[in-house]
Amino acid sequence: MRLVIARCSVDYDGRLTAHLPEAVRLVMVKADGCVAIHADGGAYKPLNWMNAPNVVVEDEDHWTVTNPKGERLTIHLHEVLSDTAHDLGVDPGLQKDGVEAHLQELLAADPTVILEDLTLVRREFPTDIGPVDLLCRDADGVAVAVEVKRRGEIDGVEQLVRYLERMDRDPDLRGVRGVFVAQVVKPQAKVLAEARGIVCVEVDYDVLRGAREADLTLF
């Protein structure tokens, strides 16, 4: 990962246009090609970013970041204060807590709890940016990517959006639908999901667990 702290201004040209006036910011370039620009505030979310894959062209006083859709991010470097690179190695990924992991297991055992026509293909379906929790198919054979969270928040929706972008490049999965499942989905997450064409489903963990345990004790 490369971390550049610089006095910079930024212009984005793509689905819309946006401008960040000159200020000191952190420019983060990840090994997968993702570029994100952060201020010293605003929590985790960058001011602007370009998801991988990208082509980054470095000139003396500016960088040009372009993606396959033709979107362009131009970072004007007025003064570079620090420029460092670090090899972070292979990340083992987020370890789910017991409730979230068990919730995923219960849904995998009966994906019709999520949507009536779903059939499980596999759990932890790999993408080049991490595994999506469940890969299913609907009655028409369309791929459905399901991300499972205990609490459904905006970052979980954004995570699913990234998975969908990668999966849609696979001819066998093209047209993949997204479903975001949680015990409770926050209103802001629902708004973002709807804007991205993602279905939100709320499930009751205790009811699912009770039903599964009842099935296992029937004789």
Explain what this protein looks like in three dimensions.
This protein has 219 residues and is of the alpha+beta class. It has 2 domains: 2-85, Protein Yojf, Chain: A, CATH 2.70.180; 98-217, Trna Endonuclease, Chain: A, domain 1. The protein has helices spanning 98-109, 154-167, 187-195, 205-217, and strands spanning 2-13, 17-29, 35-38, 48-50, 55-58, 62-66, 72-85, 119-127, 130-137, 143-152, 177-185, 199-202. It has a 7-stranded antiparallel β-sheet, with no helix packed on it. Helix 1 packs across helix 4 (205-217) and helix 2 (154-167) runs parallel beside helix 3 (187-195). The chain is elongated and about 60 Å long. The N and C termini lie far apart (56 Å).
How helical, in percent, are the residues?
A: 10-25%
What is the CATH class of the largest domain? Alpha Beta
Here the CATH topology of the largest domain equals Trna Endonuclease, Chain: A, domain 1
Helices, by number, come to 4
Percent of residues in beta strands: 35-45%
Question: Care to count the β-strands?
Answer: 12
CATH architecture of the largest domain: 3-Layer(aba) Sandwich
Measured distance between first and last alpha carbons = 56 Å
Structural classification = alpha+beta
Low-confidence stretches: 213-219
The global form is: elongated
Features:
alpha+beta, elongated, 219 residues, 7-stranded antiparallel beta sheet, 5-stranded mixed beta sheet, disordered C terminus
What's a quick, concise take on this entry?
With 219 residues, the chain is α+β, with helices and mostly antiparallel strands. The protein contains four helices and twelve strands; from the N terminus they run E-E-E-E-E-E-E-H-E-E-E-H-E-H-E-H. A seven-stranded antiparallel beta sheet has the order 4-3-2-1-7-6-5, with no helix packed on it.
